[in-house]
Specification:
Blueprint: E1 8-11, E2 14-17, E3 23-28, H1 36-40, H2 49-61, E4 64-69, H3 79-89, E5 92-98, H4 116-128, E6 131-132, E7 143-144, E8 148-154, H5 163-178, E9 182-185, H6 192-201, E10 209-211, H7 221-228, E11 233-236, H8 247-259, E12 266-268, H9 289-300, H10 305-320
Parallel strand pairs: 3-4, 4-5, 5-8, 8-9, 9-10, 10-11, 11-12
Antiparallel strand pairs: 1-2, 6-7
Helix pairs in contact: 4-5
Length: about 325
């Protein structure tokens, strides 16, 4: 397993020390191009530069210093706008290479046919050389001056099977070659242990894994506790997503994780869509919701400032560092 000393984080405009990230949202969507994701869910279009910039400024006004844009190459990520908004606002933005659920790609997209080796080369290229602006239709070719700092992987309800096996293998190899963490989407929290087992067999240490969406369903709490025992980072990103459950239910899950001693592995984020951004269609909800609404409630529930600092600053810095 990789045991290199973790000292820096790759943002889209350069390296940052692990003490420079500050308050971090480890799973948001700042830009999403029109395309297949929009056909799956119209809220998955975030393509107005000024609206996103204003949303970023809103978050920064409440202390947010770093955001991970969780959309990978070829699935609607807009690397050029990510770089621009980072340069103009001063926000640290971490871009993702890797892949998303297959439902977010056209049937003839290269993600369905490219070899694991070719995909590994692409991911390593984005992590070490430059990003690509395109890839939704043809193999990426338009270069953006910047680098990815995280590998995104995802599976649907079938888990790491079929085509996903080759995709996960490519991500694991790229992670080992570059000492980069992997952030992995689970469908409503299911198959997390399967993903962790796969990565363990491919020599990826649990501390290099961030597992997403485990808090989507409150009935998955006991399963989430089993996942936490593996040593991976647990990303809780269903905060303020009332179609799934209330914030009070979210706090119950957090308190259980803390009670079991997992405070060093919890990450908090919002997993934004255009319906949950104030400057798009979000009403009073925005990228500041975590800081202005949820964390005060969490504090009233008895969670200390030191614990909140771990979940919003310290844990993310460790999870994202190389």
């Amino acid at each position: 397993m990789n045991s290199k000393v973790q000292t820096a984080i790759t943002t889209i405009i350069g390296k940052k020390g692990i003490n420079e990230l500050g308050i971090t949202h480890p799973h948001e969507h700042l830009f999403l191009k029109k395309g297949v994701p929009m056909q799956v869910d119209p809220s998955l279009v975030i393509d107005d530069y000024e609206k996103t910039k204003n949303e970023v400024i809103l978050a920064m006004a409440h202390g947010v210093q770093t955001i991970v844009d969780a959309q990978p190459i070829g699935a609607g990520r807009n690397a050029a706008l990510l770089k621009k908004v980072s340069e103009e606002s001063g926000l640290n933005i971490i871009a993702c290479t890797g892949f998303h659920k297959l439902v977010f790609y056209k049937s003839n997209h290269w993600i369905h046919s490219a070899s694991s080796e070719k995909l590994t080369e692409l991911y390593v290229d984005e992590l070490t050389n430059h990003l690509y602006q395109d890839g939704e239709d043809n193999w990426p070719s338009t270069i953006v001056d910047g680098k990815a700092g995280l590998i995104k992987t995802a599976a649907d309800m079938q888990g790491v099977a079929g085509r996903y096996f080759s995709l996960f293998k490519a991500a694991a190899t790229a992670s080992k070659l570059t000492n980069t963490a992997i952030m992995s989407h689970t469908e409503l929290g299911y198959h997390a242990l399967e993903q962790i087992s796969f990565y363990e067999k491919h020599d990826i240490a649990p501390e290099k894994l961030i597992i997403c969406h485990l808090d989507r369903k409150t009935e998955n709490l006991e399963y989430m506790l089993h996942v936490a025992e593996s040593g991976v980072y647990i990303e809780l990103d269903t905060i303020g997503r009332f179609r799934y459950h209330s914030d009070e239910d979210e706090i119950i899950m957090i308190l259980r994780l803390l009670d079991k001693g997992h405070e060093d592995r919890i990450l908090l984020s919002l997993d934004t869509t255009n319906k949950r951004m104030r400057h798009y269609d979000g009403g009073n909800f925005g990228l500041d919701y975590l800081q202005t609404t949820f964390l005060p409630i969490l504090k009233k529930a008895g969670v200390s400032d030191s614990m909140i600092r771990k979940m919003t600053i310290d844990n993310a810095a460790r999870a994202l560092a190389k």
